Amino acid sequence: MSQTTASKRNPWSWVPTGYFAEGLPYVMITWVAATMFKYLGHDNTDITLWVGNITLVWSLKPLWAAFLEMFKTKKWIVVVMEFSMVGLLAALAFCLQLPSYFTVSIGILWLMAFASATHDICMDGTYITTLDKSSQAKFVGIQGMFWNVGRFFSSTVILLVAAYFGQSESSSWTIAWMVAAAVMAALAGYHMFFLPQGEVAQRPENFKQIYSTFFDAWADFFRKPQIWGMLAFVFLFRSGEGLLLGVGHLFLQAPLAEGGVGLTLVEKSIIDGGLSIIMALSGGLLGGLFISRYGLKKTLFTMAICLNVPNLTYVYLAYVASPDVQISLMTVTMMVVIEKFFYSFGFVANMLYMMQQISPGKYHMTHYAFCTALMNLVLWPTIAVSGYLSDKYGYLTFFVIVMFATIPSFFAAWFAPFPRSEKEGS
C-alpha cells in the first residue's frame, strides 16, 4: 500500500485502535500490576515505590524521541514496539510461577514501560503529523475515549479473567497476562496494514547530523515564545493526580480492617473498571466537544475545577469507611464514577494545550513527546511516595493531602499563556 493512500485513510480506521494500544500496556503496568501485587500480599509502600519509579520511563522520552524522527517510519516503530510488548506481556505471565516473581516482574515491567513509551511517541507523532488541526480537535475526544477503552480492557476484562480462571492465584494472573499479550498481538497485526506511515523521517547521513539534529530539537523547543510559562502549566496541571493514582484504587480493595473499602477483585473490576470507564469515556468525549465549542482559553480554569474538585469523593469514602460496616456498593460506585467522569472531562484540556500551544513547529512529534514526558514527570515522585504516605497517616488524612496537592493546578490553569491563536494553523 502506498504512503499516499495510507495517509489518506479515514482516522476512524486507526485512531481508535492506535490509542487502545496506548492505553492497554500503560494500564497493565501502572494499575493492573499494582492490583495484582496488592492481592498477592504486598503493602502499599512497596507497590507504589516500584510502580512509581517505573512511571519515570514515560518522563525520559525526550532522551530518545529526537532520534525517532530520523530512522524508519513512525508506523514501523509503532508495530515493532507492539510486537515487543507481546513478548514482554507473555514473559511476565510465566515469571509469576517463580519464587522471586516480584523482582523479575519489576524488571520486565521496566522493559515494557520503555517499549510503551516509545510506542506512544510514534503513535502520537502519527496523529499530529497525519491530521490537520481541525481533525486533531475533532478526534481528541475519540483519542481519549479509546485510550480509556484500552484501560477498560485492562482494568475490567483482565481482572475478571484473573478472578474466574486458573487453579491458584498465580496461575489465574498468568492466564490474565497471556490474554493481554494475545490482544496486543492482534493490534500489532492490524496496524501492519491499516496504520498510516506518519511524516517520513529525514535520514541522517552521518553521526554529526544525528548529534546536531538531536540538540537542535532541544534548542528549538526552548526558543518557543513563553515556553517556561507553558511548561509550568504542563508540569502543574496534574499536581495532585499522582497521589490519587497511586493509592486510590488500592484503597478500594484494601481490607476493612485497614480502613479500606474492601472490594473483591470482581467488584473492583466492575466498579473501578467497567462502570467508571463508561463514565470516563463520556467525560472525555463531552470534554472535547465542550472545548471545541467554547475554546480552550475560555474553558481552561473550568477544566481544572472538573479535574480536581471531584477528588473529594475519596475523602468522603475514607471518612465513612469503618472496620465494622461495609459501605454499600451503590455509594462506592457513585463516588468512583463521579470522580472518573469529571477527571476525563477536564484532562482533555491538558492534551489539547500541549498539542496546539507547545508542540507545533519543526519537530512537532518530538516536542509533543517532550510535553507528555514533563506532564508525567510530576506523577513519578507522587505515585512513588503515595503508598508510604497512606501507610503512615491512614487513608483519610492521605486523601486530605491529595486535595491540598491540587492547589497548584488552579494557578497553572489561571495563568497559562496562549502564544498561539486558537485559529492559527499547526
UniProtKB/TrEMBL annotation:
This protein's record includes keyword Transmembrane: yes
A Pfam family recorded for this sequence: MFS_1
Keyword Lipid metabolism: no
Membrane topology, from the record: Multi-pass membrane protein
Family annotation (Gene3D superfamilies): MFS general substrate transporter like domains
Transmembrane segments: 20-41, 47-64, 76-94, 100-123, 144-166, 172-193, 227-250, 270-291, 300-321, 327-353, 365-389, 395-416
UniProt keyword terms in alphabetical order: Membrane, Transmembrane, Transmembrane helix, Transport
Compartmental location: Membrane
Xref: InterPro entries: AmpG_permease/AT-1, MFS, MFS_trans_sf
Protein name per its UniProtKB record: MFS transporter
Species this chain originates from: Coraliomargarita algicola
